[in-house]
Design brief:
heterodimer; A: mainly beta; five-stranded antiparallel β-sheet; B: mainly beta
């Protein structure tokens, strides 16, 4: 079945440093979504990417969908302590349901 | 609009007991999903309703889990009898077609 992997599993950065998490699918995806879960909270939808090679920005966050639609990345510029949490990607394999990756847990040291 | 509501927020039960989790999706969202996260691992799909119909229940771990969605509104997920490995956080999410999911706050289930 479809598998979605994320690396790294954990990332510790100093406040102000950049952060990137990568998401890879074993199958070609129709859509990919990104979620953020704060400690003790629930996943909150960030963005959806649909087109091959698509790049979307939300303030300091940049999301990219690979040309082959099998991978994606989330890049945070100049991290802040409010960025702490686990970032999940979720890939949709045409006509099926979204499969979540294991998440990347981000810690930001002040 | 009101968000996705889950009840209870926490539940501690003994092995062998029964627990029923409830999810009230956002009004007008035909799609309702149940996911769970066990021991901090990945969020795993359990099942998907479209209105009152089960669209996909391939993620349900075994027949101790029963999900219903009466009249296409709220949904319940019953675990009977509960086992220790059922402990985790159960999330419900709803969506319109081709939109991001809105997750509820989850129910933290602890089976002792």
């Amino acid at each position: 079945g479809q598998q979605v992997m994320q690396i790294p599993q954990y990332q510790h950065v100093q406040e102000g440093e950049d952060f990137t998490t990568y998401c890879n699918s074993s199958t070609t995806l129709s859509n990919i979504q990104w979620y953020k879960q704060r400690p003790g909270g629930h996943p909150v939808f960030l963005i959806q990417l649909v087109k091959s090679g698509e790049v979307k920005k939300q303030k300091r966050l940049t999301f990219q969908f690979g040309e082959a639609k099998k991978n994606s990345s989330l890049h945070i510029t100049a991290t802040q302590t409010t960025d702490v949490g686990t970032y999940f990607c979720a890939g949709l394999n045409y006509g099926q349901n979204f499969v979540f990756g294991p998440g990347t847990r981000l810690s930001v040291l002040p | 609009e009101a968000g996705v509501t889950q009840f209870p927020s926490h539940s501690v039960i003994e092995k062998g007991q029964t627990v029923t989790l409830r999810c009230d999706p956002i009004s007008g969202h035909d799609n309702l999903y149940w996911y769970r996260r066990v021991m901090g691992k990945e969020i795993k799909f359990l099942l998907h309703f479209v209105k009152e119909s089960k669209q996909d229940e391939s993620g349900m771990p075994n027949n101790r889990f029963l999900a219903e969605r009466t009249g296409g509104t709220y949904s319940t997920l019953k675990v009977q009898p509960a086992e220790l490995e059922d402990s985790g956080v159960y999330f419900c999410a709803s969506s319109r077609v081709n939109y991001g999911y809105t997750f509820g706050s989850g129910t933290r289930l602890t089976v002792v």
